[in-house]
Write a structure and sequence with these properties.
about 325 residues; alpha/beta; Rossmann fold; seven-stranded parallel β-sheet; about 40% helix; globular
């Protein structure tokens, strides 16, 4: 039985990975999470107590991290400050968590010889023009455009350096935009879904032409586990499900699936520094590891996501008013 330490395991993607890991393996899991606004202990409800331990703590706490790493076989590092808009107004937490936190973990796995997998983002590559046929690959140069993406790029480089300099057994994955259960309602897709459920009109930034490459979070989870099990040490793998859609296309699909006219939305102020387009080429992951997405049909994945937010209103309702108040102050 493998012992996994999952940092940020109460967050959106991390909690989904923990659910997947416990469902797909016989592993025991320890979640280390500082429970910032984006983390929720309730996202782990229903998992067996005998196989899940929760530790409330910070990945920059060297003594705590060392003690936890010492009794685990694998560390999967999801913990990160991840909201681009927040990184523009308050960048300091992004440097502390994404850089110092990753360094603290790397030193601990180095001391104890523990396998390490680092979760990153396609935003480290910058953005692409809307009419550019190219997609990001593992050899695309880094070109981050915000405090968030630049600190994630820096954390990737730290991992690579610790592999080469100290022989740390690590892999990296850079994933496209995730959607699915347990995503905080400040994010684009759950914000629109919960607006409609609440009886409010959804919001489209700018003209809605910005393109993201969407992947259901369950597919991200299965890809990460496949990399841990079959990936080559020192390698980077890009995770994507060929889900390129403009924000306008996504919003119109949500409206249609929820029984509304596709024109029932408001245009609001565009986000500052809004990257134009992300697109992932996951050929290496598919060819070398044999991974394929389950939710290859974006519409079916979105329909299931909408049903989850309908069925779990108690999970998000308490935060809705404060989130919308913050966006209203920004004209969004």
């Amino acid at each position: 039985m493998t012992r996994f330490l999952v940092t940020g395991g109460a967050g959106f993607i991390g909690s989904n990975f923990v659910h997947h890991l416990i469902g797909a393996t016989d592993a025991t899991v320890t979640v280390l999470d500082s429970l910032t606004y984006a983390g929720s202990r309730e996202s782990l409800d229903g998992l067996p107590d005998a196989r899940l331990e929760f530790v409330h703590g910070d990945i920059t706490d060297e003594a705590l991290v060392d003690a936890l790493v010492a009794r685990h076989d694998v560390v999967v590092h999801f913990a990160a400050e991840s909201h681009n808009d927040n990184s523009l107004s308050a960048p300091a937490p992004f440097l502390r968590t994404n850089l110092v936190g990753t360094f603290t973990l790397l030193e601990a796995v180095r001391r104890h010889g523990v396998r390490f997998h680092h979760i990153s983002t396609d935003e480290v590559y910058g953005d692409l023009e809307l009419d550019d046929p190219q997609r990001f690959t593992e050899s695309t140069p880094y070109n981050p455009s915000s405090p968030y993406s630049s600190t994630k790029a820096g954390s990737d480089l730290l991992v690579r350096a610790w592999v080469r300099s100290f022989g740390v057994r690590a892999t990296i994955s850079n994933c496209s935009n995730n959607y699915g259960p347990y995503q905080h309602i400040e994010k684009f897709i759950p914000r629109q879904i919960t607006n409609i459920i609440a009886g409010d009109r959804p919001k489209l930034y700018g003209e809605g032409l910005n393109v993201r490459d969407w992947i259901h979070v369950a597919d991200h989870s299965s890809a990460v586990l496949a990399i841990i099990e079959r990936g080559e040490i020192g390698e980077t793998y890009l995770i994507g499900a060929d889900g390129e859609r403009s924000n306008r296309e996504v919003l119109r699909l949500i409206l249609r699936l929820m029984g509304h006219d596709e024109s029932e939305y408001d245009l609001v102020t565009d986000r500052a520094g809004h990257d134009l387009r992300y697109a992932i080429d996951s050929t290496k992951l598919r060819d070398e590891i044999g991974w394929l997405p389950y939710f290859a049909d974006f519409e079916s994945g979105m329909a299931r996501t909408i049903e989850w937010y309908r069925a779990n209103e108690a999970w998000w309702r308490a935060d809705k008013e404060s989130v919308e108040r913050k966006y209203a102050l920004a004209g969004q």
